[in-house]
Design brief:
By secondary structure, the protein is of the alpha/beta class. The protein contains 25 helices and 22 strands.
């Protein structure tokens, strides 16, 4: 590493400390990508003036307390530009918080971490990862997801302010900044989120659009030539244009305009030349294309930088960066904490609630009113039972907030005791996402990142429209509840377009996601209990549209067995056959069990609502449910067969779906595809005979 210069004039004739810091960000990015031999360099270099200006002049963020609840958020939706945020975190001197929430005193991103960019175990992975690197507010990389997250954070801030702020006590008033690129603007998820943000008039939200007209394949003219600013004006956004990313004064004026706007979100369209700044655009590389050694030397020479230096951070640059950011933000954070102490005296009940929420703790007795449902042969749909349970929990858990993609009457996910979240009534707990499943998923993830306990809801088949945020919720270990209703061919006449088949397997294949498909109203109550009590993983609740019999729990085992993923509902001693079901098919399996028992066949019936929870159990418990040596096993589920072999073994059978469904009354479909008591009994006899 080269010797550190002693002053700004050692590198720049004008001695500008701002330009020195900006070029430090650029050269750190160059060197990190060069050493890793992979990564994206253009956006970090082009957006260095924008990032520097935002962080040092506007962002309300205390590097010593990066978890301050009322900090401004900076989201890098263009996650491939990760070296921009790593450089900013390093120069800002952000302090690390470990996985247990403790301050270690270490830098969140050290210079060594930057040298280890994209290496195994480093704190500087290829795309920013929440929980992995302190200061990274959300995991980004899939383009547009950070945009959606930022809308969720803006919604959360507005809800928190409406719920907790009181006269003389401004507990929440932070802003959310999101840096996005051309790719983000092409992705539908960003458009969905932007449309909703405009409708909701989220004036605390500012997107910074790096308009460089370059993507992986080349210039955006190949596929994208719309006027993004006009589109956002149509969404109801305040749109500002900055013609040159290097014009820090113009960008600062744009941010001032955002701060002065109180009735709509803001989009700042910043024109940049991808690469190294407009002054040397002739050396710019295409997005993602590696710089050669000569490119790097030539660029550093143009900056007045020592050409052979590597990872050079000139004297005074971190100190100035930290002074500009810290001197402005630390007093604000200290004043906020002093105000909060007065708030605890003036509003003790709200303060207690706030402390629990910010520490991700549940209120005492949050599940005290969850109902128990009496046995009922007619029963109710699990979506209906889910709505009743949701409304039993909501009064006890005030920060449970959510909604559906225009389907609340069908998904039964309205909180009866609350109004709608709308402009002028940001205290409502019912969100209306419109027909925007993808945006909805990204938005609830952003809400969870702000300590709310959010839920979303749609028909199960439309998981396909929101799969990326479900995956990211699992990757980030977010306590989001995804409600999916209309879970099978039981949808009936709506036909195969609305009848999920492969979706169960998709969710089960997602690491860290707990998918629960309850068999009746009491399992539904337990499913919601499991979803809420989990603070570090998402849960997908999969509910039926059609009525399901409510089992007699005096005759069959308690639904509390759901907590272990699978449990024995009833069994003969030393059974000859094990019948396994999930969701609506459990009642069929119970019927088959009863019929087999009457015929003198020793049978066991197992409800298996959650493979995820079952796999967490020890081998002794698993063997007590699925007894080794009993090879005659049948799994019954109105979904695809994939995965069931692990539970039925080499000699078992499934009654599952190998095709899409059909349009007909549900009872006709059950007959057609073999989901009947008689068919289960027939298959059981065949297996026992073979055994």
């Amino acid at each position: 590493m080269s010797t550190q210069p002693t002053s700004a004039t050692a590198l720049h004739e004008d001695g500008s400390p701002d330009r020195l810091a900006i070029d430090t960000i650029r050269t750190l990015s160059m060197d990190a990508v060069s050493h890793a031999k992979s990564g994206h360099i253009g956006t970090p270099m082009a957006m260095a003036p924008v990032g520097y200006t935002l962080w040092t002049k506007f962002l309300r963020y205390d590097p010593d307390t990066p978890d301050w609840a009322n900090r401004d958020r900076f989201i890098l939706s263009a996650g491939h530009a990760s070296m921009l945020i790593y450089s900013l975190l390093h120069l800002a001197g952000v302090k690390e918080i470990d996985k247990d929430g403790n301050k270690t005193g270490k830098p969140a991103v050290s210079l060594q971490d930057i040298k280890d960019f994209r290496q195994l175990g480093s704190k500087t992975p290829g795309h920013p990862e929440y929980r992995h690197t302190t200061g990274v507010e959300t995991t980004t990389g899939p383009l547009g997801q950070g945009c959606g997250n930022s809308v969720g954070m803006a919604i959360a801030e507005r809800w928190l302010a409406a719920h907790y702020n009181r006269e003389g006590f401004t507990v929440f008033d932070h802003d959310i900044y999101c840096l996005a690129g051309d790719g983000c603007m092409m992705e539908g998820v960003a458009s969905e989120a932007a449309s909703l943000a405009g409708h909701l008039k989220l004036s605390n939200l500012c997107w910074i659009y790096d308009s460089n007209h370059v993507t992986i394949e080349g210039l955006t003219d190949l596929a994208f030539n719309e006027d993004v600013g006009l589109r956002f004006e149509a969404y109801g956004w305040h749109v500002i244009h900055v013609d040159d990313a290097n014009d820090t004064a113009a960008f600062a004026a744009a941010l001032e305009s955002f701060k002065a706007t109180d009735d709509k979100p803001t989009l700042i369209v910043v024109r940049s030349v991808i690469g190294y700044g407009s002054s040397i655009q002739g050396t710019a590389k295409a997005h993602g294309e590696a710089m050669t050694h000569d490119d790097i030397r030539g660029t550093k020479k143009a900056y007045g930088w020592p050409e052979d230096s590597e990872f050079l951070v000139p004297d005074g640059v971190p100190e100035r960066f930290q002074s500009l950011l810290g001197d402005r933000s630390k007093p604000l954070r200290a004043e906020w904490e002093t105000m909060l102490e007065r708030y605890r005296v003036a509003e003790p009940a709200l303060a207690k609630e706030l402390d629990a929420m910010l520490s991700d703790q549940l209120p005492e007795g949050w599940d005290a009113d969850i109902p128990t449902f009496p046995a009922d042969a007619k029963g109710m749909a699990s979506r209906d039972a889910g709505g009743k349970v949701l409304n039993a929990i909501a009064p006890k858990l005030p920060w449970l907030v959510g909604g559906s993609a225009d389907l609340a009457p069908s998904t039964k996910t309205l909180i009866d005791s609350s109004g709608s979240f709308q402009p002028g009534s940001y205290d409502g707990r019912n969100l209306h996402f419109g027909v925007r499943e993808h945006g909805m998923g990204a938005i609830v993830n952003g809400m969870a990142l702000s300590h709310l306990r959010p839920y979303s809801a749609t028909f199960f088949v439309f998981l396909d429209y929101m799969r990326p945020p479900v995956r990211l919720a699992a990757l980030m270990e977010l306590a989001v509840t995804f409600v999916f209703t209309h879970d099978s061919i039981g949808v009936g006449e709506d036909g195969p377009t609305h009848q999920p088949i492969e979706q169960l397997a998709i969710l089960r294949a997602t690491p860290g996601l707990n998918m629960i498909r309850p068999c009746d109203a009491n399992e539904t109550a337990q499913a919601w209990r499991e979803a809420i009590k989990e603070g570090n993983r998402p849960t997908a609740l999969v509910f039926s549209r059609q009525a399901l019999p409510t089992l007699d729990r005096g005759k069959y085992a308690s639904a509390a067995g759901l907590a272990k993923g699978a449990y024995v509902l009833a069994s003969a001693e030393d059974p000859d056959v094990i019948l396994i079901g999930t969701g609506s098919e459990v009642s069929l399996v119970v019927g088959a069990y009863e019929k087999l028992t009457e015929a003198g066949v020793k049978a066991r019936v197992v409800s298996m609502p959650s493979w995820y929870l079952f796999e967490l159990q020890d081998d002794a418990y698993k063997d007590s449910v699925l007894t080794p040596g009993v090879e005659a096993r049948i799994a019954v589920e109105q979904g695809g067969e994939i995965g069931w072999d692990r539970y039925i073994g080499a000699h078992g059978r499934t009654i599952t779906m190998s095709t899409f469904g059909a349009s007909a009354p549900a009872s006709k479909l059950q007959d057609k595809f073999g989901f009947t008591v008689d068919n289960i009994v027939k298959v059981a006899h065949e297996l026992i005979g073979k055994a």
